[in-house]
Amino acid sequence: MQSKPNRALGAIIMSTNTIDNTRKVTTRRLIEMKQRGEKISMLTAYDFSSAKILDEAGIDVLLVGDSASNVMAGNMTTLPITLDQMIYHAKSVIKGTKRALVVCDMPFGTYQGNPMEALASAIRIMKESHAEAVKMEGGAEIRESIERILSAGIPVMGHLGLTPQSINKFGTYNVRAKEEEEANKLIEDAKLLDEIGCFGIVIEKVPAELAARVAKEVSIPIIGIGAGGGVDGQVLVMHDMLGINQGFSPRFLRRYANLADVMTDAVQNYIADVKSGDFPSEKESY
């Protein structure tokens, strides 16, 4: 005789799934996701309205990236953006977020070379924006700054591989760590960041095989951008993947929409309606 389905158990499972999908994402939860093989989704956000949409769509992590320097302010590099500007963007994103973990980039010049300045910068981000973690570019060379920030109870995400804040040093945005010496340093730096207490690492634009190896050899999540599919999650710049910014088309970018064309069409229709007197109509007037 075929047994009847256990509806009570099914209800409990559905309830559990619902809670799991809506409960707040934390640094600890990201590590749990890596442990059970669940991929982590991450996108950049810089304002309240966008953050609210991304959060309600179910994104795991929102990165308030210093890429705001490029896509929001029109700068050629990430270097010009200031700590005050990053705090402004992070504060706006936090107000639109309920579920996702919000990580804020520490901008260039706020942590390199001076651990006490690094700590002061991180404290300002946490206190003034209410962001939940900071992200820093570099490995052994910024160890003291990372440890100082961690000692204050502030979660830190690392960033290795192509590090845009060092663009003037490298002189190119080409793939990093293709040579053995640089690849070995990247592996050593990833293990170091894991050992001293970082909760995750972004690895940008390195060979997929190398990134996959790093993901296997450290206990914390590895989030890739241009680093193949063998890592624990992926991050893209929102303006790039939505097709708002059309001047940037690297191999690793997949466009999920073409909002530049949608927005252009909408604006041109609005202009035409205003010029012709069609807008506002009688129904749209008081």
Task: Name the features.
single chain; 286 residues; alpha/beta; TIM Barrel; 2 domains; eight-stranded parallel barrel; 8 strands; 13% strand; globular
Can you tell me about this structure?
This protein is α/β, with parallel strands linked by helices and 286 residues long. It has two domains: 25-255, Phosphoenolpyruvate-binding domains (TIM Barrel); 259-286. Helices cover 45% and strands 13% of the residues. It has twelve helices and eight strands. The chain has helices at 7-22, 27-35, 48-57, 68-71, 83-95, 115-129, 143-151, 167-170, 180-196, 208-217, 238-241, 259-276; strands at residues 40-44, 61-64, 101-105, 133-137, 156-161, 200-204, 222-225, 233-236. The chain has an eight-stranded parallel β-barrel with strand order 1-2-3-4-5-6-7-8, surrounded by seven helices. Helix 3 (48-57) crosses helix 5 (83-95), helix 5 (83-95) packs parallel to helix 6 and helix 6 crosses helix 7 (143-151). The protein is globular. Residues 1-19 have low confidence and may be disordered.
